[in-house]
Amino acid sequence: MIVKSTPTLTALVLVLGLVAAGPALAADGKQLFADKGCTACHGEDANTPLEPGYPRLSGQNAEYAFTQLKDMKSGKRNNGLSPDTMKPILEEVTEEEMKALADYLASLPRLMAATTPTSGEGRKLYMTKTCVACHGKDGLKPVLKTYPFVGGQDQKYILTQMMDIKTSKRVNGLTNAMQPVMHLVQDSEIEAIAEFLANVK
Amino acid sequence: MKTLIRAVAVALVATAAFGTAAYAAGAKDKPAQGKSLGDKDYQWNANGGEKDEALHLKPDLANGRDVYEVCAACHLPEGWGQTDGTFPQLAGQHNKVIIKQLADIRALNRDNPTMYPFALPDQIGGPQAIADVAAYIGKLKMNPEPGYGDGKDLEHGKKLYKEQCARCHGDHGQGDNDKYYPRLESQHYNYLLRQYQWIKEGKRRNANPEMVKQIQWMSDRDTKAVLDYVSRIKPPANLIGPKGWKNPDFE
């Protein structure tokens, strides 16, 4: 009985193995970025958001991006569009695929937005409100790989994230390192910092 | 009902985020965590580790200045911190206290997610760097105008300080370098308040268990009064800097 069923079992295991291996074989970040619909909102180059308020993703730190994807899927990150828009999309994306996506995004060049002259106030605040300590000069040298690049980010997006971290609407990942200093920054100052970051060259 | 479920879910998520140490740094960046308050066999100020190494190294003040540049972004070039208590005053703090706290933060024996990356060896260096920066900090003159409480209950605070705190922290809050007890005089009130609460609740995991036990009975009024009192004590004149002093090392 046992001997007789072995070929069937072997076949079944093989088939299951192939099915399981399917996503692994397809874990090509670029392909996934198109197939999972990411391009629709974040742009084909991952740097042309459909609307103000959506983040630019190209050149982001891989570890940071991976954490955010996992956290939006699990609900740990639930500010902004994370729960209603990103979560349902990510239900269809495995952890392995998220890793591939994060690695792909990190491999893309960081393209800066068209720059408009700013008052200089935001740069000063960026230096004095301790932002520079963690995110580095112009928001382009995060001190840990788990921290995001913020220079050149979409202005409305970065403004919302600062506000949400300040008010604890966003509490995932390492926001607990940033939240305790956010009371140092007035809302109007956050606007100036967002304007500066969005226009980093 | 749906709202209730959602509220519970949000609360759970928030608890999860704050409840864990949440150091998402890669495993390679993450040192092994030592025993902490509440663990079996926790020993306050256990010997060993980088603390001991740093204590026995000869400090290099010039390198201490270079290391301190990282710290200066938040604690300011003068080491005066922020009067609102977001960042403590470091200037004038005892050598052994700085060494112990820095070693504890990077060994994850004291939770400080904001400071953690700046305590890592790849940011500041090994035990020698700890020795150097501690020596540099110890030479900085203190802030003549730290942050205070409301000043309404100072007599009560003075009485409590003498009864409860002076035995370890000294008659004017000078602390004790040899025993790793911090200098409290002229520390920012809000910083003292936050650390005190965390020590009381066990959230500051490298606290001295004797102190944790000793302060449990103190009321909110007692706490505010005693910390306001100690924040207003002036250290000896030779330890205080002039008003508005700027550290020329960073100009």
Can you describe this structure?
The complex is a heterodimer of chains A (201) and B (251). By secondary structure, chain A is mostly helical. Chain A has two domains: 26-110, Cytochrome c-like domain (Cytochrome Bc1 Complex, Chain D, domain 2); 119-201, Cytochrome Bc1 Complex, Chain D, domain 2 (Orthogonal Bundle). Chain A has helices at residues 2-25, 29-35, 38-42, 62-74, 82-90, 95-107, 121-128, 131-135, 155-166, 175-178, 187-198. In chain A, helix 2 crosses helix 6, helix 4 (62-74) packs across helix 5 and helix 4 (62-74) packs antiparallel against helix 6 (95-107). The termini of chain A are far apart. Chain B has 251 residues and is an all-alpha fold. Chain B has a domain at 154-239: Cytochrome Bc1 Complex, Chain D, domain 2. Chain B: Keywords: Electron transport, Heme, Iron, Metal-binding, Periplasm, Signal, Transport. Chain B: Residues 59-141, 152-234 form the Cytochrome c domain. Chain B: It comes from Magnetospirillum moscoviense. Chain B: Residues 1-24 form the signal peptide. Chain B: Heme c 1 binds at residues 71, 74-75, 115.
Q: What labels would you give this structure?
A:
heterodimer, A: about 200 residues, Cytochrome Bc1 Complex, Chain D, domain 2, B: about 250 residues, mainly alpha, 11 helices, globular, disordered N terminus
